[in-house]
Amino acid sequence: MSAALPFRLARATVFAVVCSGLAAVAHTFAGGYVTAPGLSAAFLLALVAAFPLSARERTGPQIVPVLAAMQVVLHLLFSVLHVSSPERLAGHLHMPSLSMIVLHVWAVAVTAWWLGRGEELFWTLLRRLAGRIVRVLSLPRPLSVTGVPVLVTSVVVKSTCRHSVEGRGPPL
Fold it and tell me: What number is the average pLDDT over the span 122-132?
């Protein structure tokens, strides 16, 4: 099943919000700070990366490489925007510590699992709604003989016998 443009944009936006938001919060907790232009740039980068991939359903393992790449890109983006001079930039861009790598891997794994579950639920909902819409649209429509819609109803014929009892069951 392929998604239409509004659904693709909504799914890419969710990915971008989760990815840039997690990166900003983690960067802040690690002692850095994130400016509004930096967060906006992170959101736009994640949106641009996610939109081409939002045409069909993705699983958690398919989301992992994109999240890992976005973690690296956003880490570098926030690091570059964090420093105030080129001299400090050279000192800030260093080999990451083991704890930083572990936290990035953990963030990618948890976020991929969460987004994968969201994808599964979203596509299940779409399939169910599509099934119901098809059933509603395939209901019998009113007949039109003269161009004016006429509903066909069943006619119940009542008995003309004077002493008949309706609703009576078989003799005991």
Answer: 80
